[in-house]
Specification:
By secondary structure, the chain is mainly alpha-helical. The chain is built from four helices and four strands.
Length: 136
């Protein structure tokens, strides 16, 4: 009886560690951010050959990230673009494309709820990043 209890306790402990490790080690894409940097502006007046030119560090405005307010159009985006959306991985992006090919373009973001794997929470997290082409 003691051996059976010990092995049951050991199995429970192993299961608890496995579940805790799975919860801690989950990879979430919701916090992934893509930043595009603007190229420094080219000099419009090159210095004459006889003058000495001193190199300087680029100003803060030359290296500031460019933020665009452009949303990803779920009716035209491919798997790679959809994969950039928070909470959407390659598999879910493929499901969105397959659903769109089978049923036609999405009429609203709410239509994403028809795609397996997208629920209310995920839809809410996509509202700031996705559109159906001009309509939001």
């Amino acid at each position: 009886m003691k051996k059976a209890t010990f092995f049951l306790f050991l199995a429970f402990l192993l299961l608890a560690f496995f579940l805790a490790g799975a919860a801690i080690g989950r990879n979430s894409r919701a916090d992934r951010v893509t930043i595009t940097y603007a190229a420094p502006a080219a000099a419009t007046n090159p210095a004459p050959a006889e003058e000495s030119v001193h190199a300087t560090q680029p100003s803060q405005s030359d290296t500031a990230p460019v933020h665009t307010a452009e949303k990803i159009n779920i009716n035209t985006a491919g798997v790679d673009e959809l994969d950039q959306l928070p909470g959407i991985g390659a598999v879910l992006a493929q499901r969105i494309v397959e659903y769109r090919e089978a049923n036609g373009p999405f009429s609203s973001l709410e239509a994403l709820l028809n795609v397996s794997g997208i629920g209310e929470k995920k839809l809410e997290s996509l509202r700031d990043f996705a559109s159906v082409g001009g309509v939001q």
